[in-house]
Amino acid sequence: MTRCKTFLISILFLLLSTFTFAQQNIISNHFLMNETNGFITLEETSNSIVLYNEENDITIICKMTDKSFYNSSEDFMIESLDKISTVNQEAPFVWNNRECAFGTFEMNMSTTYSGLALTTPTYDKSNYLLFLGYAPSQNNSFSQSIIMSCLNSICLDWSEYYTPGPVTTFAYPLLEDKKITLNIDGKNITSYINEADEEAAQFLIEMEYTILRLQKYASDEERIQAWKRYYSLIYRDNYRRIENVINDVLKAFYPKTCRPDKKDEIVFAQKILSWVQTFQYNRAATQAESDFTSLPAVLCGTGNDCDSRSMLVCAFMQKLKIDSVLLISPAFSHALAGIDIMAPGQMFMFDNTNYLLGETTAKITWGTIVKDHADQSKWFAVHLDLNLPDTTN
After folding, report:
1. CA-based, 20 to 30 A from 74: which of 135, 254, 304, 377?
2. Is residue 90 within 8 Å of residue 117, measured between CB atoms?
C-alpha cells in the first residue's frame, strides 16, 4: 500500500478520534461482514477495523462509539461526515427495528474520493457503529458496487442473518402486501409477499452479478468462492422475503404441527420438487444481466431458472431443518438441489454428508439425474443452510 494511502487512513482516524469509544467491547464481536475477495485487514483494535482492497483501491473503515453521545444514528453520521467530507448527503431509515442512517460523501486529499456511509446501533443498542467505504472517484462505478455490496452484507447478530441487508432495506422500504396463490399437489394455497420484494431482491442480484462478472480472479478456486458468495448473499436476502409463504404452505399440508413427521419428510420434499418442476423455464437474454430470478419473482410467476428453483427447494428444506445444499455446475450451466435425507437414489458427497440429488427442470423423483450430468467433479456445493437459530418460532 502506498505512503499516500497510509497517510489518508491516518488522517481519517485523527479526524474521527474525538469520538469517545466503548473500550470494553471488541468491535469484531459486534458485526459480521461477508466482504468480496481481495480485502485484507490492515488494522483492528477494540473500537475500530480497517479493510483494504488493493486491486480496486477500496478502503472500508468501521469505528464504534458510545450511543449516549448522540441523539440518533443520523446525528452520528452528520457529525462524522462533516469532519471528513466536502460534499455529503444522509438520510435516516429503519433496519431490523433499529434507527439507522445511510449517506454518500466526497472528500479531497490530493485525490478526490467518493464513498458510502452507514451508521447503526449495535445489536444490544448500547453503542453506534460507523461504516465508511470509499475509493478514488475515477473508479466510481465498479468500486461503488463493491462498497455497496460490502455494507449490505453487514449482519449484527446471527439471529438476523437471513434478513435483507441495510442498503437494500434503505433503497427499497416496505410497501403494501400483495396476495399470491400457489397450487401444490392439487391444493390451492393463498399467501402474500410485499410489493417491494421482487424489485429489491432483483436489485441485490444484479449488484452481486456485476461484481461477480467484472472482478478478476487469480484461480478457478477463487472464482468458485466468488460464486459461493454470490449465491449465499442472494439466499440471505431472499429467505425472509418468502418465509411467510413457506409457513403458509406448511400449514396447508400439516395444519396441526406445521411440519411433516420424520418419515414423511421425503414425501413432502417430493411434493415441493414436483411443484417447481412445473414452472415455465426462463433465462436471461444476455450475459450482462444475471439469469438468476429472485425467489419472490419465482413465487409470483414472473420467471425462474434452474438455480432459483433449486434455491427455492433449499429454502423449504431449511424451514424443516433438513440440511440442504445448492449444487452448481459451470461446465453444464446447470444447478441441482441436494438434501440430507436417506432415500434411494443418486447422492453427492459434501463435507462428509451424502446429499440426495434433486433435478428441478425435469419431472423425475429425488435421486434421479440425467446420465450426462453424473460426473461429480463438474459440480461444487453451496451450503446455504448454516444451521442458525430459528428466529421465527
Report:
1. 135
2. yes
The alpha helices in the chain, defined as continuous H runs, are: 3-16, 73-84, 140-152, 166-171, 197-214, 220-253, 265-276, 295-300, 306-319
Axis-axis angle for helices 197-214, 140-152 (nearest 10): 120
64 touches 129 (CB < 8 A): yes
- As a whole number of angstroms, the distance between CA 244 and CA 221 comes to 36
Q: What cell does 377 get?
A: 467433479
Show the low-confidence residues of the chain (pLDDT under 50).
3-4, 7, 9-25, 284-286, 389, 391-393
Residue 281 Rama label (left phi>0; alpha psi -120 to 50; beta): beta
Residue type, 367: G
Picking from 159, 130, 144, the residue whose alpha carbon sits closest to that of residue 48 is 130
3-state secondary structure of 31: coil
Whether 84 and 163 have beta carbons less than 8 Å apart is answered as no
pLDDT, residue 28, reads 63
Residue 343 near residue 267 (C-beta atoms within 8 A): no
User: Residue 81's pLDDT is what?
Assistant: 92
- pTM score, whole prediction: 0.88
pLDDT tens for 289-336 read 677 999 999 999 988 899 999 999 999 999 999 999 999 999 999 999
- Hey, is 354 helix, strand or coil? strand
Which residue in the block uniquely carries the three cell numbers 472528500?
A: 107
